[in-house]
ABC transporter ATP-binding protein (Pedobacter cryotolerans), 209 residues
Amino acid sequence: MISIKSVSHTYNGAQQISFKDWEINNGEQWLLLGQSGSGKTTLLHILTGILKPTQGEVNIDQTSIYQLSSKALDQFRGQKIGIIFQKPHLIKSLSIAENLTMAQSFAKLPEDLNRVDEVLTSLGIADKRAAYPSELSQGQLQRVSIARAVINKPTLLIADEPTSSLDDENAAAVLQLLMHQSGLNQATLVVATHDKRVKDAFTNTYSLT
Ligand SMILES: Nc1ncnc2c1ncn2[C@@H]1O[C@H](COP(=O)(O)OP(=O)(O)OP(=O)(O)O)[C@@H](O)[C@H]1O
């Protein structure tokens, strides 16, 4: 289970942003909605261990993540949390397979090429394993970023505007893949978006006002 309790954050000199309490059960799929500037990215950073809130508690699988040392938190994030950004952010000088094995070693897990192949196959891009990011289309790159996010079978899969730079066909495919991949690993899925095309697919919604 993932929960936030009494969480608020104040950037230097700015107004406090408060987040209502939120409990997410394992395997649930949630949409995170809010107008521009309401704090979606801030909350995603808090949930993924990137930003320690000025107040409150964040628990993932019974671990109060901001009580961990920064080294332990890095490893926890690598193993338990997969993140998909609006743009893929892959390492250009590494092949697709190498980008994925790097995510394994970053999480201090052994390199597992079978797992790399399994994930690329389930996302329909196994033939791209030796290619470099510059050789892939936008939709294929977004699939690789999903592959990188799920490679370590995370508990929590977080996507920040994953479809906004894609056309209708790719947006629908990426959304379906995200939901399918989270289902395969029984991962919890949280998707932050403005994208109207995405909203109907979710029953659970957390709204920022
Ligand atoms: N590093 C920062 N330093 C100071 N203020 C910040 C910082 N990051 C965000 N903010 C402010 O915090 C508020 C919430 O920003 P945030 O990026 O979380 O919103 P958002 O809902 O993700 O917006 P958008 O949909 O436009 O990306 C905004 O008022 C923003 O200006």
